[in-house]
Amino acid sequence: MEKYVDAFVNSFLGSVEWTWKSIIFEVPWYTNYFWGLTVISLVVWILEISFPWRKEQSIFRRDFWLDGFYMYFNFFLFAIAISGFYKLLGVLFKDVGISSKSLTIIDLSSIPVWGQLLIFFIILDFVQWFTHVLLHKYPFLWKFHKVHHSVKEMGFAAHLRYHWMENIIYKPLKTLGVMVLGGFEPEQAYIVHFIAIAIGHLNHANIKITWGPLKYIFNNPVMHLYHHAYVLPKGSYGVNFGISLSLWDYIFKTNYIPEDSGTIKLGFPGDEKFPQDFFHQNIYGFGKKNQD
Ligand SMILES: [Zn+2]
Ligand SMILES: [Zn+2]
């Protein structure tokens, strides 16, 4: 028992310490997600200000600060809160004989680094695309995902406006993805993580980018804006589920971009009754009366 308590406490304290060390620049720069996220945010924000798609949209758009708070909450505060719990799970699984190497299908260690990173990026992105589809398909998951879709004016920080339960829902499938790859992230996985943050920020930014013919591979602001459309095609529970890659939507025919004015109404039917503040948005998903 003591072993489990120790694992929990040490991991929790380790995360607190790591985050603090990141803030005061005492970790290697390439593992500094605190300042990495901040720099990427500033760069994309400057691009939004310089080349706005919706010219009438304010630089400090609606919910700018709320989304900014979500960004740091989801990336750091929540990560600290949950780290001990995940460590505990890892120890428990190990004790019953399941380790992160139990499911290895592709042995990454035998291929060159760039190949490892590419495979890691593609598998992780597919797993997230699939999870995202589930978030839309099942009402009990959609209740939590509504937080992300309650954005009414789109800007880069909306990327990380999501309910902390999403971290928990995504985790098992992401872990499974890593297990298939031999149970470890490539040493340089930070490159993949930073690229994913940058693409995610751009997807939500008020900038018109389509990547030309590469739009069939990479997700982009025009495509993702339609993911947030208030009015969906008849009979559909969602379109353009892509995270970093648009590829999966084209393969599985969930792509939908009827036009590119950038001025469509965002949200979902009933969002006028959706809570506006952080606290109530976070308890909404647990309420019984919100099963619609
Ligand atoms: Zn969604
Ligand atoms: Zn989004």
Oligomer: single chain
Catalogue the ligands.
zinc ion
- Beta-strand segment tally: 0
- Which percent band covers the strand fraction? under 5%
Gap between N and C termini, in Å? 42 Å
Helical content class = 40-55%
List low-pLDDT spans. none
Overall pLDDT confidence: 90
Major β-sheet annotation: none
Which sequence of SSEs, written as H and E, runs from N to C? HHHHHHHHHH
Radius of gyration: 19 Å
Structural class by sheet pairing and helices: mainly alpha
Overall, the morphology is globular
Total number of helices: 10
Please describe what this structure looks like.
- This protein is mainly alpha-helical.
- 55% of the residues lie in helices and 0% in strands.
- The protein is built from 10 helices and no strands.
- It has helices at residues 2-23, 33-50, 64-95, 113-137, 139-149, 164-180, 189-204, 221-227, 247-251, 278-284.
- Helix 4 packs across helix 5 (139-149) and helix 4 (113-137) crosses helix 7.
- It is globular, with a radius of gyration of 19 Å.
- It starts with a helix and ends in an 8-residue tail after the last helix.
- The structure holds zinc ion (2 copies).
- One zinc ion binds at residues 132, 136, 145, 148-149, 227.
Reconstruct the topology from this structure.
Layout: H1 2-23, H2 33-50, H3 64-95, H4 113-137, H5 139-149, H6 164-180, H7 189-204, H8 221-227, H9 247-251, H10 278-284
Bound molecules: zinc ion (2 copies).
One zinc ion is lined by residues 132, 136, 145, 148-149, 227.
